[in-house]
Amino acid sequence: MAAMLDALKSYVRTPSTQNQAEDTVLLHVTHSNLKQHFIEIRFDLHTTIERVKEKLRDRCGTPVESMSLQLYDDTNTKICDLIDDFRPIGYYSPLDGYRIHVIDADPTSMSAGGWLEDTSLVEKYTISEDAYNKREDTFRKYREKRVAEDPTWTLQKVTEDHMADIASGIEVGARCEVDPGGKRGVVKFVGTADTLAAGFWVGVQYDEPVGKHDGLVKGKRYFTCPPGHGAMLRPDKIKVGDYPERDPFEDEEEEI
């Protein structure tokens, strides 16, 4: 058993080039129209030259009927032309590290003139200013909407000390009112929150069950309050001061 395990370990640690099947070969590929080189493509030695061309067509875009192949050794010396489509590639005795060079004879080929590599040759999509302004799904419209909602809105990255100056005037235990909405409560937390966006946050326990949680936010507890009474807000939404708990019946008219 130990001998079998040692043999298996030896096999696994052996370089992949020694473990590959004896009837396959690793060849590099170059192309007459392309700067890119394809490194170590595995070929079955029984594969016909026609099938080799089909495999290379999928990589370089040259039609099979417009493709001529040449075989070079690892010293860049030409061995031969692969001219017989029905012979297996093994007939030409290629070795690992040899190179197949593809010659594309089609002047209208996708690879001609650098079309597959030079992005500057690709026509760019353009749109007029008027047409762009008429679209609703643009960043410009999104920015206009956000600025209309909040004139201070910006795309600048939020820092860890975002709104620290406002948060410094808010203390845990202070009565507060949330704007907008006028919901009242007590401050339960002031600081940064690992599970939320960067910057300072204020945790509030509302007087009424109009919140979203009990102080547990995305798996981390920042404070404790009854379920449905908690909220985490930015400091600029909080006004602290003399905000006593409202009488739920203060707006009801007296019965006559």
From TrEMBL:
A Pfam match: CAP_GLY
PROSITE patterns: CAP_GLY_2
Keywords: Chaperone, Cytoplasm
SUPFAM superfamilies named in the record: Cap-Gly domain, Ubiquitin-like
Cell compartment(s), UniProt: Cytoplasm
Cited InterPro entries: CAP-Gly_dom_sf (IPR036859), CAP-Gly_domain (IPR000938), TBCB_Ubl (IPR045172), Ubiquitin-like_dom (IPR000626), Ubiquitin-like_domsf (IPR029071)
Domain CAP-Gly: 192-234
Membership in a protein family: Belongs to the TBCB family.
UniProt protein name: CAP-Gly domain-containing protein
Organism: Sphagnum jensenii
